[in-house]
Amino acid sequence: MNEFGKRIKSVAGAELFADGLNTLQVNIGLLCNNRCKHCHLEAGPEKKELMDWHTMQLVIAAARDIRPNLVDITGGAPEMNPNLKRFVKAMSRAGFRVQIRTNLTILTEPGMKPMIDFFKQNKVKLVASLPCYLKKEVDSIRGDRAFDRSVEALRYINKAGYGRASELQLDLVFNPEGDFLPADQSLLEQEYRETLSKEYDVDFDNLITIANMPIGRFNAMLRRKGTLQSYNRLLRKAFNKETIDGLMCRSQINVGWDGKVYDCDFNLGLGLTVDDSVPQHIRDCDPKLYSHRRIVTGNHCFGCTAGQGSSCEGALVR
């Protein structure tokens, strides 16, 4: 058993198990227009991994069996999958609430702006990654002009009604640019709101803070800096047992671009599929087994339990 698993067992008295299945997260490909320095999937323009329509049909069938509260579509840049619209329409027709995770800059690429109207027409919730509200930090993570392009996309999104109408929800995502934990989510949200509104006339609904996991490109960056060990010590020292009940892996499954099933997108990045006691591919979906499966953990999981906790929906302890 890894160190994280031992810590969980020592404070909870048992290994980590799922407790329901509310979210079906689907990673439809690693292709992305960005090569972010902290990307746990090492996504980028050179990637070929994309979910095909056949696999999407398997996911749709699984969703009908699972009946999740949310279908959470992520990437890479999901907008770069040519089957995205078809997939979203099918999920919407089946009555599922759909959420797209966008990196914003993709919406400023040629031919991509109409995607915003498509999202609006299908009442898709948008979760937009904006690693900071300061230009220098965003550009250092994502490249030159990434911040300006992100603001440009947010203005388009606001103009469509997102962040300014209750039925069109726009949440932003913060990632630290370095080897430290996110600040208090509520305080950071105030800073985002004040700066973006005052300086850029941009509105949003909620801010989500996510800690950087020491995997993928972030792991490589820490190694180059010689700070990987100190960052891992920070995560272990900041372990908060109050986060355990809310860990995202306990109420979701993640489906990779090829249909393999994971406990979360971070485990996907490491190639750690779900426990071998349950189906490994979405074609064999069994909601009852997934809802009570043993969670596959690793020491990177300390990132989700550090401080306020971290999840795809933000801090776990407020």
Quick rundown:
By secondary structure, the chain is an alpha/beta fold. The protein has helices at 3-12, 53-66, 84-93, 114-121, 135-142, 146-159, 185-200, 216-225, 228-237, 265-270, 287-291, 302-305; strands spanning 23-27, 70-74, 98-102, 125-129, 170-174, 206-209, 252-255, 261-262.
Please compute the radius of gyration using only Cα atoms.
19 Å
What count of domains describes the coordinates? 1
Give the low-confidence spans: none
How far is the first residue's CA from the last residue's CA? 30 Å
CATH topology: TIM Barrel
Mean pLDDT score: 96
Q: By helix and strand content, what is the structural category?
A: alpha/beta
Could you tell me the number of beta strands? 8
Please characterize this protein's 3D structure.
This protein has one domain (3-305): TIM Barrel, CATH 3.20.20. It contains twelve helices and eight strands. The chain has helices at 3-12, 53-66, 84-93, 114-121, 135-142, 146-159, 185-200, 216-225, 228-237, 265-270, 287-291, 302-305, and strands at residues 23-27, 70-74, 98-102, 125-129, 170-174, 206-209, 252-255, 261-262.
